[in-house]
């Protein structure tokens, strides 16, 4: 039986910035339009956090029953390590996604009911990433999905539910957040290239190879900070987002140095911190600018 600490680790708390940062960014974009709603922001946060926990447990379940996690260099997986029964992990995933669905329906009902359909697509995307007969995460589309769901949809959806419209500031924030969020997955898949190749999980990193995946990671970080400069056209205060640059440099250092395996685990943490600090700083600039 897995302990509470192991269940928490299985939820992969290091990925929580992927859920929290888009809500901060989207709320900042709504505030820029003079329409921030803090109770809607909190509901969006519940949706995002419950969604990513559900995704992580669903991936743990699907990868575990396929045997993908039998040999693994990354963080703990509950099913792959035989610490929890597959049905228990599946139940945790379903409960988390159900919480996200309920909170999402309430948020959409008080904003724009057609967003319920968008939420349904998001939940389907969460399951089909590694679930189903042909999971798209095994075909090299994981980074694209993260960019769309945890970048474009999460940021612009948060802005729209509060302001009932989107603008170029929200678009720039969405692309930058999507790049940083995708960079977390790129780092994860870079670390897992040997084991994913062995298990037949053809991620984008496996397709690109080690060298080009390292370049992609650095390019995604660079795009986010270039867009920070673009956001200064809205208000010069957005330059405060550059305070996250040292964290990005620290995240990229092991990647640039050619490290692999468990030596790349800190890259996920530092990339997530980069995204969280950046989103907080830029959102604050838009709120007070």
From TrEMBL:
Gene3D superfamilies: UbiA prenyltransferase. It comes from Mycolicibacterium hippocampi. The lineage of its organism: Bacteria, Bacillati, Actinomycetota, Actinomycetes, Mycobacteriales. Its EC number is 2.5.1.74. Conversion of 1,4-dihydroxy-2-naphthoate (DHNA) to demethylmenaquinone (DMK). The keyword Ubl conjugation does not apply. Pathway: Quinol/quinone metabolism; menaquinone biosynthesis; menaquinol from 1,4-dihydroxy-2-naphthoate: step 1/2. It catalyses: an all-trans-polyprenyl diphosphate + 1,4-dihydroxy-2-naphthoate + H(+) = a 2-demethylmenaquinol + CO2 + diphosphate. It is found in: Cell membrane; Membrane. GO terms for biological process: menaquinone biosynthetic process; vitamin K biosynthetic process. PANTHER family: 1,4-DIHYDROXY-2-NAPHTHOATE OCTAPRENYLTRANSFERASE, UBIA PRENYLTRANSFERASE DOMAIN-CONTAINING PROTEIN 1. InterPro entries: MenA, UbiA_prenyltransferase, UbiA_sf, UBIAD1. Its main location: membrane. One of its GO terms (cellular component) is plasma membrane. GO terms for molecular function: 1,4-dihydroxy-2-naphthoate polyprenyltransferase activity. Keywords: Cell membrane, Membrane, Menaquinone biosynthesis, Transferase, Transmembrane, Transmembrane helix. CDD domains: PT_UbiA_UBIAD1. The chain crosses the membrane at residues 41-58, 88-107, 114-130, 136-156, 168-187, 216-249, 270-288. It holds the Pfam family UbiA. This is 1,4-dihydroxy-2-naphthoate octaprenyltransferase. Belongs to the MenA family. Type 1 subfamily.
């Amino acid at each position: 039986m897995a302990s509470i600490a192991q269940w928490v680790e299985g939820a992969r708390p290091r990925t929580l910035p992927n859920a929290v940062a888009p809500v901060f960014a989207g709320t900042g974009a709504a505030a820029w339009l003079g329409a921030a709603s803090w109770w809607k922001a909190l509901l969006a946060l519940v949706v995002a956090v419950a969604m990513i926990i559900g995704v992580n447990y669903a991936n743990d379940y699907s990868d575990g029953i396929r045997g993908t996690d039998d040999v693994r260099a990354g963080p703990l997986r509950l099913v792959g390590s035989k610490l929890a029964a597959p049905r228990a992990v599946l139940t945790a995933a379903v409960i988390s996604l159900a919480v996200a669905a309920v909170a999402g329906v309430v948020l959409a009902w008080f904003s724009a009911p057609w967003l319920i359909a968008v939420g349904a697509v998001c939940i389907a995307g969460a399951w089909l990433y590694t679930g189903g007969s042909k999971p798209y995460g095994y075909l090299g589309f994981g980074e694209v999905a993260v960019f769309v769901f945890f970048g474009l949809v999460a940021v612009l959806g948060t802005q729209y539910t509060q302001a009932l419209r989107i603008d170029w500031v929200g678009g720039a924030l969405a692309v930058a957040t999507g790049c940083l969020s995708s960079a977390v997955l790129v780092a994860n898949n870079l670390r897992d290239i040997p084991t994913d190749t062995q298990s037949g999980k053809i991620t984008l990193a496996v397709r690109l190879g080690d060298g080009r995946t390292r370049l992609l990671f650095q390019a995604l970080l660079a795009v986010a900070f270039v867009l920070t400069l673009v956001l200064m056209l809205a208000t010069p205060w957005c330059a405060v987002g550059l305070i996250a640059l040292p964290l990005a440099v620290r995240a990229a250092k092991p990647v640039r140095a050619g490290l692999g395996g468990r030596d790349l685990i800190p890259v996920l943490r530092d990339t997530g911190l980069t995204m969280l600090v950046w989103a907080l700083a830029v959102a604050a600039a838009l709120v007070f600018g």
